[in-house]
Write a structure and sequence with these properties.
single chain, 143 residues, two-stranded antiparallel sheet, 3 helices, 4% strand
Length: 143
């Protein structure tokens, strides 16, 4: 399921982050799997981990699908990090750290400025480049 919006009611209205702050969070918690800048990717055990940064438009078979060129909604980045990252200790980042690393990834992918503040109000306003490439699936859900 792709999330268009999230219920941020459980998050402090004062949680915020910038790419400047997020670079440190990335270095501390993300770089060991995704590389020092997020462009490299890497490995977790025997499993490859994807790069997170590629400013080129997504093309099947030609570019990696990354947070910046493939994901359709910026809120999905926050939600995924909140629920599943870091891989070896999911759920251990504070809300401010999640916003900061989300801001870093958006900045590294050329989608926001380095000092732009990302919070519950600004994050849904970030328009992702591949947003219009997804189409609704007309098939009914089946159990």
């Amino acid at each position: 399921m792709i999330l268009k919006t999230l219920d941020f009611s459980l998050i402090s209205e004062f949680s915020v982050g910038t790419a400047v702050e997020g670079k440190g969070v990335h270095t501390k918690t993300c770089a060991k799997c995704h590389g020092p800048t997020g462009k490299e990717g890497g490995k977790t055990g025997n499993r490859p981990t994807p790069p997170l940064v590629d400013t080129r438009p997504f093309k099947v078979g030609l570019t990696n699908a990354t947070v910046g060129n493939y994901w359709s909604y910026s809120t999905t980045i926050w939600d995924y990090i909140h629920r599943a990252m870091p891989f070896d200790h999911p759920g251990t980042l504070s809300d401010d750290e999640i916003y900061a690393v989300t801001a870093y990834l958006l900045y590294a992918n050329g989608l926001i400025g380095e000092r732009d503040v990302v919070d519950a109000h600004s994050l849904p306003k970030v328009r992702m480049p591949n947003r219009d490439a997804f189409v609704p699936d007309p098939r009914p859900d089946v159990p």
